[in-house]
Amino acid sequence: MTVEATIYGDRKVFTVAAFNRGVGIWLKRLPEVWVEGEVTELRRNDAWANVFFTLKDPASGACLSATMSRRRFDALELGLVDGESVQAQGRAELYEAKGELAFRVTTIERFGVGEHLAALERLKQALVAEGLFAAERKRPLPRFPRAVGVLTGADAAARGDVLTGIQARFPPAHVVVVETRVQGRGAAERIVAGLASLAAHPAVDVVVLARGGGSFEDLLPFSDERVVRAVAGCPVPVVSAVGHEQDTPLCDLAADVRASTPTAAARLVVPALDELQAGLERARVGLERSVRQLLTRDGERLGRLGERLRAAPRLLLERRRFALDRTGARLQALSPRATLARGYAIVRLGGNALKDASEVTAGTLVDIELRSGGFAARAEEVRR
C-alpha cells in the first residue's frame, strides 16, 4: 500500500488519512519489543475479539494503551487483575482513524505482584478475618428513605448519574449531596469526613458512595482502610457505586449493597414513582372490587334475613297454634267431662267432688253428675 501526496508547487502535502497510514506502515516495520508496567483498566468481554488494558509505569505514571487477542489472552490463563506487574511482548501500531498509538500485545507474562495490589490483598485478608465483610453484617435498604445522602466528587459524572436517576425514578425524593475529593492525596480523609457528615444528617436514611470509572490508582482511596472502616461503621446503610462493574475496591465489600454503576445505585435507593402509582391503582381497583363483592354478599344475606323475618310471624303463629291444639287435646283428655262421656259419674257433697267414702254417712244427701244431666241421691249404705 502506497501513501500518495498532493503536489502544490514545490510543496508535497499529505491528507490526515495518508499521514496516519504512512506512520502506521513505518510502525509495522519496527521489531517486537518487551514492555514492563502495571496492568490497569483491564477490560474483557466474551463478546469482544480483543482484551483492552493500559500498561502504566509506576515510577513516572506514563501510560500506554494496549490490546491483545482475547483468545490468546484467555489461552495464557493468567487471571490478571488491575495492579499486577507484567512484561508484555508486542509492537507499536497506530489506529489510523483516530491517530492513536497503541501497543499490540502478542504475549504477556506476570513477573511480580504490584506493590499496591499486594498491600490491598494483605489488608483484605486482615479485614476478612476481622469479619468486616461478613454477610450477616449487611443491612437492608429502607423502602422509603426520608432523605438519600450522596457522597461524590465535585465535578464527577457519577454525581449527575445518581441525581438524574433518583429524580427520574422518584421526583419527590429528598437528596443531600456532599461533594469531596475522591482521588489523590488526602482523598481518604475527605471521604471519611463526608461520610460522617451525611450519617449525622437527621433525615438521611441511606448513603450512596458514588464515583465513576478510573484507573487502579484513581480508585485506591476507596480501598483505604480508614474509608473501609468508615463504610462498615456507618450508622445508616451504605450503597457503594464506585468504578465500573469490573472494579472491586474494598469499600464495595464493606458496604451493605454494591451497585455496578451510579445509575444502578439510584434504582436501589428509591422506588419508581410510576410503579408505586401502578401498584396503588391496582390496590384501588382490588379494594373497589372487594367492597363491591362484600356489598353484594351482604345484600344477599340481608335479603335472606328479610325473607326469614317476613316468614317468622307466620311460622311462629303456626307453631303456637299447633302447641295450643296439642295442649287443648291434652286438657280435653284430662277433663272430667271426658270421664263422664265414658259412662262415669261425679259425686259431689256440698259442691266438692267426693274422693273418700268416709266423708259421708248413711242418709247423707249427695249430687250425682252424669255426662248428660244429673240427680240427687241419699246414701243408704256406706262401705269403707
Q: What is the oligomeric state here?
A: single chain
CATH class category label of the largest domain = Alpha Beta
CATH superfamily of the largest domain: Hypothetical protein af1403, domain 2
Alpha plus pi helix count: 10
Q: Averaging pLDDT over every residue, what do you get? A: 87
Structural class: alpha/beta
Q: Give the fraction of residues assigned to helices.
A: 25-40%
Strand content: 25-35%
- Examine the coordinates and then state which fold CATH places here, giving the name of the CATH topology of the largest domain: Rossmann fold
Strand order of the largest sheet: 3-4-5-7-6
What is the 3D shape? rod-shaped
Tell me what the structure shows.
- Strands 3-4-5-7-6 form a 5-stranded mixed beta barrel. The chain has a 5-stranded parallel sheet with strand order 9-8-10-11-12, with helices on both faces. Strands 14-13-15-16 form a 4-stranded antiparallel sheet, with no helix packed on it.
- The chain starts with 5 loop residues before the first strand and ends in a 6-residue tail after the last strand.
- The protein has 4 domains: 6-113, OB fold (Dihydrolipoamide Acetyltransferase, E2P), CATH 2.40.50; 118-271, 3-Layer(aba) Sandwich (Rossmann fold); 272-334; 338-378, no CATH class.
- The chain is α/β, with parallel strands linked by helices.
- A hairpin with a 2-residue loop joins strand 13 and strand 14 (352-353).
- Helix content is 40%, strand content 26%.
